[in-house]
Amino acid sequence: MSADTLCLWCHRQVDSQDSIELPDGGKHPIHPEHRSPAEAFLAKASKFGIFFIIAMALGTPIFVVGIILTSNTPVWSNAIMGAMLTFIGVVMVALPFCTPQTVQWLGLRKSIVLARVLGLGMLTWGVATAGFSLLA
Ligand SMILES: [Zn+2]
Predict the structure, then answer these.
(1) How many angstroms is it from 122 CA to the middle of ligand 1?
(2) How many angstroms is it from 59 CA to the middle of ligand 1?
(3) DSSP string covering 38-107, please?
(4) CA–CA separation, 34 vs 68, rounded Å?
(5) Residue 48 Cα, ligand 1 centroid: separation in angstroms?
(6) Rounded distance from Cα 97 to ligand 1 centre (Å)
(7) 76 CA to centre of ligand 1 in angstroms
């Protein structure tokens, strides 16, 4: 089954000619009933995508520097590591943007669920890591 007849949102076959315009100017098939959630998500992505990139590109190195600077005190470097995972988790839950390849593979709806599940996992892992290192 060719990916160019699958709905952008739910990734099931689209039999009609309905399509949605992508930010890159391309068009993608979509079920009429899935146009509005897909448009809402694309609008959110175009508005907040830059915050996601800035958060990941600036936030993560700051934590990494913190981990390196505190490498002599494992309690603190573990706590900062936990904070970093929590931070990435929160960003992914709030802004569940996957790579275009993932969207291509799963469809938009499942890629959002996947990003949120991964985000929640990292958040939980981060809180546990920080908690254990500070309380231990
Ligand atoms: Zn659909």
Answers:
(1) 29
(2) 35
(3) HHHHHHHHHHHHHHHHHIIIIIHHHHHHHHHHTTTSHHHHHHHHHHHHHHHHHHHHHS-PPPHHHHHHH-
(4) 46
(5) 24
(6) 18
(7) 47
Cα→Cα distances 125→22, 26, 72, 106, Å: 35, 38, 22, 25
pLDDT tens over the chain, length 136 residues:
455 799 999 999 999 999 999 888 889 999 999 999 999 999 999 999 999 999 999 999 999 999 999 999 999 999 999 999 999 999 999 999 999 899 999 999 999 999 999 999 999 999 999 999 888 7
Q: Is the pTM of this model over 0.90?
A: no
Residue written as token pair 């996601």: 52
Ligand 1 midpoint to CA 64 (Å): 40
The CA–CA distances, whole Å, from 80 to 8, 18, 47, 71, 89 equal 38, 48, 29, 10, 14
